[in-house]
Write a structure and sequence with these properties.
The structure is a single chain. The protein is built from five helices and four strands, in the order ββαββαααα. The chain is an alpha+beta fold. The protein folds into two domains: about 70 residues, Ubiquitin-like (UB roll), CATH 3.10.20; about 70 residues. A four-stranded mixed sheet has the order 2-1-4-3. α2 runs antiparallel to α3 and α2 crosses α4. It is elongated and about 80 Å long.
Length: about 150
């Protein structure tokens, strides 16, 4: 007898742990599935976690796209888009230029995912980036004036 259509068999990875083979009931809320996964690895605060495709896309699994998960898919437990956006938002404001550059590289990579991008925008991330560009432009213009004979 074939398995019910609402059940999807997947593997879920977590750094430093053996992958878990799970059956995901697509009728269950995604938050309940994430809580179950976190409980299996004894991770507290399941609301700070999310599932992501483990392939090169690294896109987050959401209630809207979860029906695209097929049998045999490999997923990864990772920090939630909101947590990731908050951490990145803070790193971009670092006083260290190296830290800012690394954060901007990460932003370029992560922002391909609409779910993450929306969380970053919700933190007023576009204004932050605009301020960075504008202040950089002002500094560049001042430097030009100083350098002119």
């Amino acid at each position: 007898m074939p398995p019910p259509a609402d059940i999807v068999k997947v593997a879920i990875e977590w750094p430093g742990a053996y992958p878990k083979l799970m059956e995901i009931d697509q009728k269950k809320p995604l938050s309940a599935i994430i809580k179950e996964v976190c409980d299996g690895w004894s991770l507290a605060n399941h609301e700070y976690f999310a599932l992501q495709h483990a392939d090169s896309s690294n896109f987050y699994i959401t209630e809207k796209n979860r029906n695209e998960i097929k049998n045999g898919t490999i997923l990864r437990l990772t920090t939630s888009p909101a947590q990731n956006a908050q951490q990145l938002h803070e790193r971009i404001q670092s006083s260290s230029m190296d830290a800012k550059l690394e954060a901007l590289k990460d932003l370029a990579s992560l922002s391909r995912d609409v779910t993450f991008a929306q969380e970053f925008i919700n933190l007023d991330g576009i204004s932050l980036l605009t301020q960075m560009v504008e202040s950089g432009t002002e500094r560049y213009q001042k430097l030009q004036k100083i350098m002119k004979p």
